[in-house]
């Protein structure tokens, strides 16, 4: 066999590796020598520029540090700019417009408008010179000199505000305000201000100064639901912006800062005072002389009287947001931005609701130390017929019916009792009203007294606190009270409550927070035979040409069976006693079946009545925006009376429907009608709040307990179950009706079909 490898192959391989090693060593040595030589040459060259002693610390080191920090700052700015630049991702950002929506009531009558239909037809050259000067003098005097951010103006505003101890001047340029209008919201956050600054610089690189000013004049909100100077001129003065005089131009320019506060159709004196400030700015900026503005001072602008044009603004704001969400579901290829929307609102009921709230607050708000209220009336499909988001939209656009989360107190208890019925309890089931504790928390009834064995119907009628807490413990079983509360939350979710519902031991008696809108529509599940409706304002959406593109009964969410119809009927039967003989007797409707629940929270901060008939569901809340306590206001006082006033208007001309579990309504007995007459004045308004000392209240509680003990002793002797006397309490141990806590006599009970 021939040899494959020669005899000296090992020696050859060894020599090859030695050669490779020598070459590598030589290369590395030569490279190192070359690099060392280059470094020496570079060092020799740089020595020519060496700066030592004081020059180094005065010039070189500061410049080096500045370069380092500048590079780091650029990286930080780049990171901060990313969210702002993402807002500009839409290539059609300049042409894209907001929705322009005309709203109709349920019968097809116009009720208002929302959104913006851009009017770009008026060139900047046609805008009056005095309007442009007034705008620049008031909003941004250095507009044509800065790069999008007025550094000097911002610094001046910071100094002025610091000296004044508050916000006296704004530092945003017109470009920054336009960036906010085009891309951002009105939230007051540092993130929004940072994004606004970057977007302002971005706009300056893509648009001319005149284009920016034109967009600002066309798209700024000017109050009264109008956008743009031309729309505002038509709304306030019934003329084109081309024709406004100096006084009118000054009033328009004054609206950019606070359009709601200075809207002339709401507060004409404030609008004229603001216009006078604008005239001062014209003189201070050197755009006009005092003589030129003298005539406008002597003859201020007059506006069109729109006091009779009472649009349901809180409702329209909410409906507009719903339209936005609906339009977002349309295909991206759909470019229509102008719509006509028919809503669920009934303007007769809406006006009655607004009047009821205002009348109660005007007459008794000061006595009760209550300044705000909210109300929502819904049909059984979830369509909102009326919404009151506050006392005065002009003073505050915050919608307390939709956006405010308040503790419901005892009005939350129906969800607890519903959960109990779903888990084997019955309205006649007996629960002992006695001491109970969860950890170190022990709920108390009003007066710190207990009623002994009571049925669930009696417990909800008297608004006893201990019973719902005991039910939550029983529902949890071996898993503990927390599991029971989880079941209650799950049932509330089925009803449509989307609020956080934070789990605490006091959740069963209303310590969590809900909104008026969700609470009102959730209660509609009871008369709707257990089907949970979805709150909505929109019935139909049509294009400006009249083409139907969306309809609630076809495209809207479908109702789901939240609870069995039998449970809903049992709950209606139980809750009807709250109105007929419990804490909500002021809410009783003559001839109309009614059920509901009052609620009063800790320190009387919130007062509720939420109730329903076979036709509608309605929730009413009273309180204060700053969470300050009221003067012993309970759910059985102003809320119940307001609810009654709204419901009377809602049922006018409506076929009264039977309420499952209650039957048809009956005429109030004479004794109850007389009691209601004594409790209300000629207009059906509740009496002022009672004034009772703590000692007097203690005496009444002791007397009441003695009467309870005597009644129990008599009934025991007769071998009968003692009908415990009503001891009303709310979610936090307060009476839902003062009349219920200190009755003049036994209340007459309207016959009910249970």
Question: What's the helix and strand layout?
Answer:
Blueprint: H1 9-47, H2 53-86, E1 100-104, E2 110-115, H3 129-139, H4 151-164, H5 174-183, H6 190-206, H7 209-219, H8 229-237, H9 246-253, H10 268-284, H11 290-298, H12 313-328, E3 338-343, H13 347-368, E4 372-379, E5 384-388, H14 413-422, E6 430-433, E7 452-455, H15 456-462, H16 466-476, H17 481-495, H18 516-523, E8 531-532, E9 538-543, E10 548-551, H19 552-555, E11 560-561, H20 565-580, E12 595-600, E13 606-612, E14 616-623, H21 638-650, H22 670-679, H23 694-717, H24 738-741
Parallel strand pairs: 1-3
Antiparallel strand pairs: 1-2, 3-9, 4-5, 4-14, 6-7, 8-11, 9-10, 12-13, 13-14
Structure description:
The protein has 754 residues and is an alpha+beta fold. It has helices spanning 9-47, 53-86, 129-139, 151-164, 174-183, 190-206, 209-219, 229-237, 246-253, 268-284, 290-298, 313-328, 347-368, 413-422, 456-462, 466-476, 481-495, 516-523, 552-555, 565-580, 638-650, 670-679, 694-717, 738-741; strands spanning 100-104, 110-115, 338-343, 372-379, 384-388, 430-433, 452-455, 531-532, 538-543, 548-551, 560-561, 595-600, 606-612, 616-623. The protein is built from 24 helices and 14 strands. A hairpin with a 3-residue loop joins strand 13 and strand 14. The longest helix is centred in the N-terminal third of the chain and has 39 residues, at 9-47. It is extended and about 120 Å long. The chain starts with 8 loop residues before the first helix and ends in a 13-residue tail after the last helix. The relative contact order is 0.08.
């Amino acid at each position: 066999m021939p040899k494959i490898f020669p005899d000296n192959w090992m020696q050859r391989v060894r020599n090859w590796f030695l050669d490779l090693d020598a070459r590598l060593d030589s290369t590395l040595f030569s490279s190192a020598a070359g690099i060392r030589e280059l470094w020496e040459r570079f060092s020799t060259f740089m020595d020519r520029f060496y700066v030592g002693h004081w020059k180094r610390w005065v010039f070189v080191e500061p410049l080096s540090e500045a370069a380092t920090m500048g590079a780091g700052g650029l990286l930080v700015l780049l990171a901060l700019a990313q969210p702002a630049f993402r807002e500009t991702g839409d290539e059609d950002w300049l042409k894209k417009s907001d929705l322009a929506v005309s709203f109709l009531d349920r019968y097809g009558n116009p009720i208002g408008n929302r959104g913006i239909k851009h009017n770009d037809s008026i060139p900047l050259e046609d805008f009056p010179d005095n309007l442009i000067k007034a705008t620049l003098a008031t909003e941004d005097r250095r507009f044509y000199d800065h790069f999008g951010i007025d550094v000097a103006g911002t610094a001046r505003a910071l100094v002025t505000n610091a000296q004044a101890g508050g916000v006296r001047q704004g530092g945003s340029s017109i470009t920054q305000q336009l960036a906010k209008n085009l891309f951002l919201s009105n939230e007051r956050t540092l993130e929004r201000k940072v994004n606004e600054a970057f977007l302002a610089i971005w706009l300056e690189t893509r648009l001319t100064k005149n284009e920016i000013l034109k967009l600002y004049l066309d798209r700024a909100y000017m109050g009264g639901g109008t956008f743009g100077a031309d729309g505002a001129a038509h709304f306030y003065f019934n003329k084109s912006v081309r024709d406004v005089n100096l006084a009118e131009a000054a009033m328009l320019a004054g609206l950019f800062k606070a359009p709601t506060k200075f809207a002339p159709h709401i507060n004409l004196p404030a609008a004229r005072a603001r216009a006078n400030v604008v005239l001062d700015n014209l003189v201070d900026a050197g755009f006009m002389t005092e003589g030129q503005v003298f005539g406008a001072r002597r003859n201020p602008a007059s506006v069109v009287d729109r006091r009779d044009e009472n649009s349901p603004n809180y409702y329209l704001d909410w409906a507009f947001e719903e339209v936005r969400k609906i339009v977002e579901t349309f295909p991206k290829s759909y470019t229509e931005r102008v719509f006509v929307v028919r809503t669920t609102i009934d303007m007769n009921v809406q006006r009655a609701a607004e009047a009821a709230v205002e009348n109660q607050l005007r007459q008794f708000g000061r006595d009760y130390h209550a300044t705000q209220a909210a109300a929502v009336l819904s049909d059984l499909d979830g369509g909102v017929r009326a919404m009151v988001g506050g006392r005065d939209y002009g003073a505050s656009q915050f919608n307390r019916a939709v956006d405010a989360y308040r503790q419901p107190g005892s009005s939350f208890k129906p969800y607890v009792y519903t959960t109990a019925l779903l888990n084997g309890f019955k309205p006649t089931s007996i629960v002992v009203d006695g001491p109970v504790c969860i950890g170190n928390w022990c709920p108390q009834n009003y007066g710190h007294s207990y009623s002994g064995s009571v049925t669930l119907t009696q417990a909800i009628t008297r608004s006893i606190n201990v019973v719902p807490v005991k039910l939550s413990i029983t529902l949890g079983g071996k898993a503990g009270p927390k599991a029971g509360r989880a079941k209650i939350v799950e049932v509330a979710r089925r009803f449509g409550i989307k609020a956080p519902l934070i789990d605490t031991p006091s959740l069963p008696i209303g310590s969590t927070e809900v909104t008026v809108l969700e609470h009102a529509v959730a209660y509609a599940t009871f008369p709707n035979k257990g089907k949970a409706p979805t709150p909505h304002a929109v019935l139909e959406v049509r294009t400006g040409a009249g083409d139907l593109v969306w309809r609630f009964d076809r495209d809207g969410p479908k109702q789901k069976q939240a609870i069995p119809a039998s449970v809903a009927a049992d709950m209606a039967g139980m809750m009807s006693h709250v109105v007929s003989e419990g804490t909500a007797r002021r809410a009783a409707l003559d001839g109309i079946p009614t059920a509901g629940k009052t609620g009063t929270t800790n320190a009387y901060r919130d007062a509720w009545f939420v109730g329903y008939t076979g036709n509608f569901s309605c929730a009413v809340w009273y309180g204060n925006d700053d969470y300050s306590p009221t003067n012993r206001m309970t759910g059985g006082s102003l809320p119940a009376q307001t609810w009654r006033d709204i419901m009377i208007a809602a049922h006018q001309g409506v076929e009264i429907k039977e309420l499952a579990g209650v039957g048809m309504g009956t005429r109030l007995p004479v004794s109850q009608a007389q009691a209601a007459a004594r409790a209300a004045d000629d207009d059906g308004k509740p009496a002022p709040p009672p004034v009772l000392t703590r000692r007097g209240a203690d005496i009444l509680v002791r007397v009441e307990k003695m009467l309870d003990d005597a009644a129990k002793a008599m009934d025991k002797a007769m071998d009968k179950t003692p009908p415990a006397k009503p001891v009303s309490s709310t979610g936090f141990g307060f009476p839902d009706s003062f009349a219920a806590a200190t009755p003049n006599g036994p209340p007459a009970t309207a016959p009910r079909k249970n």
